[in-house]
């Protein structure tokens, strides 16, 4: 990939897109990430790199990009991923904000394919499918992600109750939506994107490009999503808090089914560490949604686990 400079903004007008990259000790991956943005066929953008207190070679990697007209490097003391992303939102000048984590990569046509979907003024978030890759950048083949991880368009709030199907580093958000309805919840350690998508989905439509415009890296050291217990706790807090705050705007059947689905997942989570707690979650899932096969499958696994 070539390191071509961004177009100069000679009229001092705001770019259409602000690319917000957040980085914490991902200097090893940062150059590839930056190059994937610089290779975009859509060029009306600025890059804001938020360094969340990295102690590796991130600052050294950044030096090769400091000469670019529309590149802005912002260092902050380590405050967590939500604070870093909010810092990017606060500093952005674009009409749209495209999020990217420093260990991920974009397809060169990503922005070119996504930005036109905002021609519909009701659309607030545009995302895409993703291709998984390992720590070394090798593409990985994965099976069907399941019903609740299929991409959806339109008013997706009741689908988001079940699971987060929006790949974060594929997302582009209308900046006015973030200004009106808030950014990332800095009290959350994980799941900050799912929390944001649910809140935004109450007010705007989602759209997606049905092909993998994101290369998403998995399995490398430091990846927060590997913390299963922390992820489960944050997911429970996010879902329960959202339903409590907005129950009057959600269809009761969707709420019941989503809570049953969450309880079934909780049952599987505790099946090896707290069997009686696991059983209670499976039983509650059956009570909430007795026509679903999933909690019965969970009870079968629970019964014959040992």
TrEMBL record:
InterPro entries cross-referenced by the UniProt entry: Glyco_trans_2-like (IPR001173), Glycosyltransf_2 (IPR050834), Nucleotide-diphossugar_trans (IPR029044)
The Glycosyltransferase 2-like domain, residue ranges: 18-139
Listed Pfam families: Glycos_transf_2
Organism name: Desulfobulbus oligotrophicus
Superkingdom of the source species: Bacteria
Keywords (A to Z) from UniProt: Transferase
Name of the featured protein: Glycosyltransferase
Example GO molecular function: transferase activity
